[in-house]
Amino acid sequence: LCARSLAPDARVNPHRSLLGTGNYDVNVIMAALQSLGLAAVWWDKRRSLERLAPARALGFILNAPAGVSLGAVALPLRRQHWLAVRQLRGTYYNLDSKLPAPARIGGEAELRVFLRDFLSRGLCELFIVVPKAVEEAGTWLEPE
Hints:
The protein has a domain at 38-137: Cathepsin B, Chain A (Alpha-Beta Complex). 22% of the residues lie in helices and 33% in strands. The protein is built from four helices and six strands. Strand 3 (73-88) and strand 4 (91-94) form a beta hairpin. It holds the Pfam family Josephin. Its EC number is 3.4.19.12.
């Protein structure tokens, strides 16, 4: 997708890691979601998470600095890492590929605590995955 649609004429694709390690930029994620009729809405960290309407979201995509390792050896490097959060039968799960299995977060209250903790770490971003109609209506936010 990043070569075909976002940079078809580029010799070195600006939307992915030079090493091909999968650290795609947000434009690739947004284009993939748009092709499915979905949108990724950037969360402004100045907003209270109490305004978030999790029931109207299909999921959450987070980006944060993460450690780098070579096998079992941790390297003194950090790079951005994408992870997802989804709800299944009323329970939210952290689907980080660096975890051995999905990690249970809990209900909406625990989700807000998880997201608040995550966003407090510094160079972290949150995107809310919603149907295009929800994005256009702005109903991913609770009314003030």
